[in-house]
Write a structure and sequence with these properties.
disordered N terminus; mainly alpha; elongated; 11 helices; about 325 residues
Length: about 325
């Protein structure tokens, strides 16, 4: 008899979805992952935001050059500029993303226990849509802090001084000038990136995670290192796929520009101007760096998530 049928041939009731442990696991995973890869994310932001000058000049030649110049100018802690707000908000962001995907997969699973790829993509897309309420202000503030060093360095070369800023001062200024909507600048571009990423990432991760050895506890789940590698591979692949959307989002959310840099009025304007002045390759700026950031971030996230750290803390049994 099928596991999904009761003794009288009726569909068995669905198991209760363990929402609290899922949210806790997502939050813990996010904090650990971001703490490990933040310097790479800072470099990615600066590479994506820099625009080529009229004579082809640019501040950073590549990822390594950006690392060297940032470390030389701002030191070790400069590599973590903007990390406080990111670590603070990554907890609910990752919790929403990972738990929402599991929740939607739970409800979209058919009575026979199958979950077609289209439904997996729908679950991922809905999870990506849910997270933007946290992601948009988090990314907006993070980008200002990460890009501040680049703006200050260019201003210094021009003989000008840029005042130091903080996430708190930026938040208060935006709330004063534009209200809560000021924190949601670039929401459309954020949704375009995050929904597309989740549509690609979650089904790909689920597919890759079916390979390799299983746990010995009879659960049928992959061992932790398979989840880690699957998260890395799916994350880096999805990151490269959506990199053009990430470049657009990053540029739209940069509130301050270096002298001579273009401003953008919406997604369409950003695409048009970037194509005209920098070509198609501009949409893949920071692509390698983003892949290197996302791979361990999601590898660590999935490993922590599937190890069931929250269940161990709460003293409850981990369910699939």
């Amino acid at each position: 008899m099928s596991d999904n049928k009761s003794a009288i041939g009726q569909p068995a009731p669905r198991k209760e979805f363990p929402l609290v442990p899922k949210i806790m696991n997502g939050g813990i995973a996010g904090i650990i992952g971001v703490s490990c890869v933040f310097p790479l994310d800072l470099v990615k932001t600066r590479l994506q935001n820099q625009q080529i000058g009229p004579n082809g000049e640019k501040m950073y030649k590549n990822m390594l050059d950006c690392f060297k110049k940032t470390y030389k100018a701002e030191g070790y802690f400069g590599m973590y500029r903007g990390s406080a707000v990111n670590i603070l908000l990554i907890t609910p962001e990752k919790a929403i993303k990972l738990a929402a995907n599991d929740l939607f997969r739970h409800h979209l699973t058919k009575q026979d226990g199958s979950l077609p790829v289209v439904r997996q993509m729908a679950a991922g897309g809905l999870a990506g849509l849910c997270q933007i309420i946290i992601t948009t202000p988090m990314e907006l503030l993070k980008i200002q802090m990460q890009d501040a060093g680049r703006i200050a360095a260019q201003a210094k070369l021009a003989g000008k001084v840029v005042q130091k800023t903080s996430a708190t001062s930026i938040t208060l200024q935006l709330l004063k000038e534009k209200g809560i909507s000021g924190l949601y600048k670039g929401t459309g571009a954020t949704a375009l990136r995050d929904v597309t990423f989740s549509v690609v990432y979650f089904p790909l991760f689920a597919f890759l995670n079916t390979f390799g050895p299983r746990r010995a506890d009879g659960s049928g789940e992959a061992v932790f290192w398979v989840s880690f590698l699957s998260g890395c591979a799916a994350g880096s692949s999805a990151a490269l796929f959506v990199n053009p959307f990430d470049v657009i989002k990053t540029r739209l959310q940069a509130l301050k520009k270096a002298e001579g840099e273009m401003a953008f009025n919406g997604i369409g304007d950003c695409i048009t101007k970037t194509l005209k002045h920098e070509g198609i390759t501009a949409f893949f700026k920071g692509g390698l760096c983003r892949m290197i950031v996302i791979a361990p971030l999601f590898g660590i996230a999935q490993m922590v998530y599937f190890l069931g750290v929250a269940e161990k803390i709460l003293g409850v049994q981990k369910t699939q």
